Amino acid sequence: MKKRFKKIAALLGMAVIVTSLAACGGGNGDSASSGQGGSDSAPGGNEEIKSVNVTIPTVYDLPDKDMVEEAINKITEEKYQIHLDLEFITTGNWLQQSNLLFTGDEADIIAAFMTPLSTYVKNGQMTDLTDYYANASDEFKAVWSADEMKGTTIDGKIYAVPNLRNFGNIIGLNIDADIAAEFNIENGQTLTMEDIDAFLRAAHEAYPDRYALVPQGSDSITSTWTWDGLGDEKFIGVLPQQGQVTEVQNLFDTEDFREFCTWTRSWYTDGLIMQDILSNTQPFQSLIGNDQAIACFDNYSVNNIAGMIRTVVITNWAQSNSYQALCYGINQNSKDKDAAWKAMEILYIDAEVETLLTDGIEGTHYTKNDDGTNSFPEGKTAADCGYGMAEGYWITPYSGKTLPLDVNGPTFFDDLLKFNEDSLKTKAFGFAFDTTEVTDQYTACCNIMDKYYKALMSGSVDIESTIAQANAEFEAAGLQDIIDAKQKQLDAYLAQ
After folding, report:
1. Strands, E, within 218-376: which ranges?
2. pLDDT tens by residue, 417-437
3. Fold annotation for 6-165+323-359
4. Which of 17-31, 103-117, 453-467 has the lowest mean pLDDT?
């Protein structure tokens, strides 16, 4: 997986480089417990160049990854004596491959994504970064304040660094722009579910060769709705109504969930949703962009997607674990945590590195516009430009020093910060459920949720009989124990 120095050794013409990376405080190869967290961005000419693996999710394959990595390392090796080995894993393969990485020492910096940060912490997989942050450079602390770092703090310890994205979500429908215009639907327009139902049926009649509605993820009709999982992305016990209540409930018994499933069931049985939705692997961007589909649900902030308009169904709100849903930490098995932290700072404060990592190489993967935005090369999209991470600005560690895509406008990142500030926060904001006291029950209930949740959300199964079967299995597996434990922890958190 990692190149670990081969090309660096060739460049330097040295068999062994022994000088330590003093700027990271201690440089003993594994000093997370030493409290020597800070890093110095000044180059140290005779220092050993340390290799750090950075593992990042991606929506698209990136055939030009090596080209971008080489350009990044021309900067990081000279300025910081750090070599970055970039590893990208597509979102469809993330869970399996990232979990394997945590069992070894190949990954250093890695995203906490699609698995709660609290789970990684409970499993002893993430390094405590509290001392590193305390001793970090002023430039880094200017990116995320101590208050913001509380979003990735568990039991008083920092385990990850937030990335720049929306911490709240607007939930709406993405629609092929041409078809939306045909039906007089405008970008940012508010739609009710009744409006959506009428549109999907009319559009399906007009374009019977296209799917009316496709999943947001590969096989998930939408990743979120109006329930807060309380730091638990399996939704084993939730706060419905955008988290504006404080009673933990079984998701399948909430009005929010049943209402949504009623809509999707009607669309599925009437042929508006692909019948093989649970085995789909194509992203909605490709399905809609290639004229195979018309619309999909999406949670987003102020960004746009070329060729689509975005409507509003549920206004901006933030779940309890919004900071933790995608963030970057250091693998507990990392061989050199000091070097990994130094690399972490680079990813958040160096504008050149951020731009290369997010946008790729100017003239090859993007062009600059006079209005302060970027565009993909003429005739190219994120899917086929060779390095389409610009559309995934929300995935990389920090993109705030880059130029936004043209579809989002020159004020995009300022707008994003304002969006986060204005989001409706769940009453449990910052809370993360600790499953320790109900580990067995939680594992069993997660398996049950995996069995039924996506199927119900997609409309591909009968609602009442499936929920009845699921609830019987939940009861036997100890769901009430989990709800009681969540409620107890939440009550204590709210009382602080």
Report:
1. 293-300, 308-310, 314-318, 326-330, 367-368, 374-375
2. 899 889 999 999 888 888 889
3. D-Maltodextrin-Binding Protein; domain 2 (3.40.190)
4. 17-31
